[in-house]
């Protein structure tokens, strides 16, 4: 095949910049490869296809036989990959039931900006799918192909054009042109790090080979059978992969080998599990309603429902559950309760309020085959590869998907699951949210053209499609994703709200320190109150003294019978103020009323007592007192009043009144909390 070297031009990408376009350190390269390649195949499905086959094959090939086909780089490839070292590894992704690399073969043939599959995949970057409901929205995902191996990718396709079957083959290489061992030659004085191979049309332009004997020669090197009869599709061949490097990306070398799951030891096993991880809802699922189902295989072994890992098989079943059939499924047959709930948002959509449906189930270790003799890994390790430790109960595992049927992301500790109730150490709450893709945003919050919920979510996905984010529409942010997350948290908590009992025994001193760690620094709300030299607070000559009330915890905590107690000092500046407990998660700060409204559970922290034992006035004179929530609520100088949350009557705040301003009070504050998985702070309202 003859070479076409990409020339430098204004606002053109270099090889090094293309390789950095999707640098997602949270998702391993092999996962990105599976997600991108399968989505490309599904997006290219024939109009009436019932299924799309995607076959992943790993194997070895003869380097010298391949290198001879690449004009201008044969010698450099031979030097970098000498045949004396034996055969080298490759990955092949072959789809069928798709249209293949259709469309024009050169830019001269493009009409009305319709580039076609061939130009968009092989010769273009940032050319996304235009059809609604497609997986891609950026046109950048295919850059992962160049990061899997040495940067060389071969494209083989068979298509039906005007009743005639045509075979096409082209190749592309993207490399970091700044490296000293770069393979591609330069065009003039500058290197761009990009080149294509095919049939030369003029001095520096190529088009794909078509119906050429060389196509069969290259396929034979990899042992690939060509498409036959009425088959159409596309095959991606990535030579010179390094299995050890790719596997080190999925399971770190410093992790315990005894905890290592079997699928992280071989490329083929990992691809098998990654297909299940991201496409479980669509694998051989004839009930999938948005298009053809996915029929995947790895090295000739079909992935079937019966040989899927238990978690992913459960996800596949959950995808098909609706409000109408939730009582008749594999879960209820085995005695597990399945819940199907509509997630509704107010004043957002033009066609009802439903944003999607949430299907959830609590599964035990028996169902998930975590017990001998199967000894399957935990659901967390199924989705993250590494061991995830939960100290007091298991956090729910929530996943979410839209029309293409790919799981966009899993969450057990982030925005989708924070503040969710936990299950026992032997059970796992599994939740799947499915977007109501056909609903449309209201015309007054959409653009001139109505936007479907599917398109709103698709536009907010990043190039790697790894998460959903809200964004502005017509200058306004409808906060759809945020409100979906908030409603899911509330639904899960309402469904599984029983408290988990911690059966482990703890020494009082150890638990005191553990609970004390829940508290933010004791001086978050002002300096420790003490009279400045001169004997008075707030004098006109003292600009350093705060004019607001302040609250400080003093000394070490005392833990007894589940209650944590502190000594405190507090300056009450304006005769009266309210001390309120708040919970702070990684994502938001919650008062009791906000927590109970949005999370749907009782506020997890409650005052047991608040006492005023001493008062120091602005002149420094101190007097003793016995005012408390559990005793006398007032005396001549001060009073306390309990304030409870509106929904669940949790004592979450204390109203404090003093006969004079600028009084320093001290005493004890005690409370108990249902969880150690958040921070506690005290705010003062005046």
Gross morphology: elongated
Percentage of residues assigned to helices: 10-25%
Uncertain ranges: 133-138, 499-517, 521-545
Q: How many β strands by DSSP? A: 26
Structural class: alpha+beta
Quickly list its features.
alpha+beta, 16 helices, 20% helix, five-stranded mixed β-sheet, 686 residues, single chain
Structure description:
With 686 residues, the chain is α+β, with helices and mostly antiparallel strands. The chain has three domains: 2-43 and 55-246, no CATH class; 310-495, no CATH class; 508-685, no CATH class. It is built from 16 helices and 26 strands. Strands 1, 2, 3, 4, 5, 6, 7, 8, 9, 10 and 11 form an eleven-stranded mixed sheet that branches. The protein has a five-stranded mixed sheet with strand order 12-13-16-14-15, sandwiched between helices. The longest helix is centred in the last third of the chain and has 16 residues, at 480-495. The chain starts with a strand and ends with a strand. The model is unreliable at 133-138, 499-517 and 521-545 (pLDDT under 50).
Brief summary:
With 686 residues, the protein is an alpha+beta fold.
List the helices and strands and how they pair.
Elements: E1 2-5, H1 15-19, H2 29-43, E2 51-61, H3 63-67, H4 74-80, E3 88-96, H5 116-123, H6 144-148, E4 152-161, E5 164-174, E6 194-202, E7 205-207, E8 209-210, H7 213-222, E9 233-241, H8 243-248, H9 267-279, E10 293-298, E11 301-302, H10 310-319, H11 330-333, E12 338-344, E13 354-364, H12 379-384, E14 397-401, E15 407-411, E16 427-435, H13 453-460, H14 480-495, H15 508-516, E17 550-560, E18 563-572, E19 576-584, E20 589-590, H16 592-598, E21 605-616, E22 622-628, E23 638-644, E24 651-658, E25 663-673, E26 679-685
Helix pairs in contact: 2-9
